[in-house]
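Proteins fold reproducibly. Take a tokenised chain:

. . .
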Amino acid sequence: MNRSATIDSYLSLDVNHWSGDHACMLTQPYQLYIERTDPAKNMARFYVMNIEANLFGEVCLTRRWGRIGARGQTMVQYFAKECDAVERFLKILRQKRTRGYRTVRPQ
């Protein structure tokens, strides 16, 4: 049992040190599903992106892509601030739009 009076950490469990931390609270949900299809080229691709906070307060941009009907590949990027993740989200969206990806209407 540790009976020393010194504190071994500056982050005490008794102190509310999370009061100024807003990293885990997103201002709005960011989700996107787009597809690119061309029957002449036998092309049927999807691209999914979403931004969410993980349990550690980091903002994560999760991307998934591949052939429609397949599981595809996944990539996760971590950001310190939500605005950085949103900036990357929008940059990727612009790139995909120029390559022919479009939103799909529910049937």
Remarks:
- The two ends are 64 Å apart (CA to CA).
- The helical segments are 82-98.
- The beta strands are 30-38, 43-53, 59-67, 73-79, 102-103.
- The CA atoms of residues 5 and 60 lie 39 Å apart.
